[in-house]
Predict the structure.
Amino acid sequence: MRTVGLLGLVAAVLAVTALASPWVAWGAAAIVGRPFGFARVYDRVFEVLLVAGVLTSWRRLDLGSAAGLGFRRHAWARELARGLAIGFAGLAVGLSVAALFGGLVPALRFSPGKTVRKALLGAGAGDVLAVAATALLYAAVHVIRARSFGGPGDAWSGVAQTITLFAPLASGAALPQLLGLALLGWLLAVARLRSSALWLPIGIHAAWVATFRVGRLFFGIRPTPAWLVGTGWPPLVGGVAGWIAVGVAAALLARRRLMFR
C-alpha cells in the first residue's frame, strides 16, 4: 500500500504540474523579461511539487525515518566522496571516448567572469539536484522536452502541452536516451542497495550533474555523431560514450564492494 500511495502522489503531482506550469512560465517571463521554455519550467515545477508533496505526506505514507531511507550519519562523508570519485571517473572515460571520435571539443561558453559565477553556482547545486533526480520516473522525466510556451492566453493548454512533452517517449528516437537513463538509474539503485545508504548514489549523481553544469562551461558536446553523444538531455547519456561512462562507474562500484566486504 505504501508503494501504491507513493505512485498516487506522483500521479497527482504530474496533474497539478500540467495545470500550474503555464502560469509559472508566464509569471517568470513577466518578472524576468524573457520567455522560458515550457519543458524547462515543467521540470522545475514538478521537482518542487514532488518534494513538497513527499514532505507533507510523509507520515500518511509511512515513509519512516531519514536513516531508514538511507540518510544515515555513519561514514556519510566517506560514502559521498567515493560516489563522487566513481561518478567522475566514469564520466572521464566517457568524455575521453567522445573527444577521441570528435564528439567533444574544448570551448569556453561564456566570458571568464560569467564562467566563474556559473561554475560556483553549478558546483553548489550538485547534491540537491542529485536527491531530486533519484526520485520516481527518473528516466521519463529527463527525456521529456517541449519546444516553447506561448503566453498567458495558453495557460489552460497545460494538459495538451504535457501530452506533447511525453510524446517523445513513444518514438523510437527516444529509445537510446531512455536506455542510457535507465542504465544510470540502475547504477544509482545498485549503489543504494550495496551501500545501504543514499550517500554513495548521491555522490555518483552529483558528479554527473557537476560535470554537465560546470564542465560544459569549458567544453562543447557536438550534436554528431548521435550514436556517440546521444540526442537528448542530459548530453552523452543517450550515446555509446555515456553507456561506457556508466559501465566504468559500475565496474568501479563492483570493485569497491569486493574491497570493503
